[in-house]
Design brief:
This protein has helices at residues 26-41, 127-140, 151-163; strands at 46-48, 58-61, 72-82, 86-93, 96-106, 108-114, 120-126. It is α+β, with helices and mostly antiparallel strands. The two termini are 15 Å apart. The structure holds nickel (II) ion. The site of nickel (II) ion has 5 residues, from α2.
């Protein structure tokens, strides 16, 4: 396993649409291992492959607060149902360092995906898990949480981030 560099906004890579995985092979599993290690090293709770520059539809997540790790791996995730009821969470993102904003999203969702072993899974999520899944799925479509903000707020954030040293890694 290896800790990779996390890309930060503004970066064109983060805006591209990731491609579905044909088959979960050793390569994808190694990628998921690296993503998880990178995410833990950055104290994140979710990471999409594109955030380390790999345009594949893969997400890793771990919302456990205890020391025992409980990683969840999502390959080719598809949201099947979204609750019309919205919930608001203060969101941040490893690709938008040190910026936070309250974002409204459907409070529950159901997601279909392949797991680490390539097995089909279905998960009903609510609370932080539902928010996190939707945030990470947005990454697969080139969308960041700041895109839900007003143009003005977004441009202020992007200006701040542009002043950071290029290639500075949040690790
Ligand atoms: Ni993010």
């Amino acid at each position: 396993m290896a800790v990779k560099k996390i890309l930060t906004e503004p970066n064109k890579f983060l805006r591209q649409i990731s491609k579905p995985v044909e088959k979960v092979t050793k390569d994808e599993q190694k990628l998921m291992d690296d993503m998880l290690e990178t995410m833990y090293a950055a104290n994140g709770i979710g990471l999409a492959a594109i955030q380390i520059g790999i345009p594949k539809r893969i997400i890793v997540m771990d919302l456990s607060k205890e020391e025992a790790k409980k990683p969840i791996y999502f390959v080719n995730p598809v949201i099947k149902n979204k609750d019309p009821l919205k919930a608001s969470y203060e969101e941040g993102c490893l690709s938008v360092p040190n910026q936070f904003a309250n974002i409204d999203r459907p409070s529950r969702c159901e997601v279909e995906y392949l797991d680490y072993d390539g097995k089909k899974q279905r998960l009903k999520a609510n609370g932080l898990l539902a928010t996190c899944i939707q945030h990470e799925m947005d990454h697969l479509n080139g969308v960041l949480f700041i895109d839900y903000l007003s143009k003005l707020k977004r441009s202020i954030i992007i200006k701040k981030l542009s002043k950071l040293k290029p290639n500075s890694a949040i690790l």
